[in-house]
Design a protein that fits this description.
The protein is mainly α and 90 residues long. Helices cover 86% and strands 0% of the residues. It is built from four helices and no strands. α3 crosses α4. The protein is flat.
């Protein structure tokens, strides 16, 4: 099992920075859907099932995206947003 996880992790790390950003951004709609579906007029069991599915997808996209980005990609993304914030202040 540990070997399988390492193989998947190595495969994800070979994907591009852009792919990592796209996968990471997919977690946002999943988080929104996982909590917004509570407003639907459906049974509690269906709400629970939907929450588990969409919250699980959100976490999978989040961790998958972070794995693809890696430490250097995370720094690059953070620098981009801090530069954007700095440009908006001036």
């Amino acid at each position: 099992m540990k070997r399988c996880i390492l193989v998947i992790k190595q495969w994800l790390k070979r994907l591009s920075f852009r792919t990592g950003v796209i996968v990471l951004s997919l977690c946002i709609p999943c988080y929104i859907i996982s909590f917004a579906q509570m407003l639907l007029p459906i049974s509690v069991g269906a709400k629970t099932a939907l929450w588990v599915v969409f919250f699980g997808l959100a976490k999978s996209f989040q961790y998958g995206g972070l794995t693809i980005l890696g430490v250097e990609g995370y720094r690059r993304l953070r620098a981009y947003f801090s530069r954007k914030k700095h440009d908006n202040i001036q």
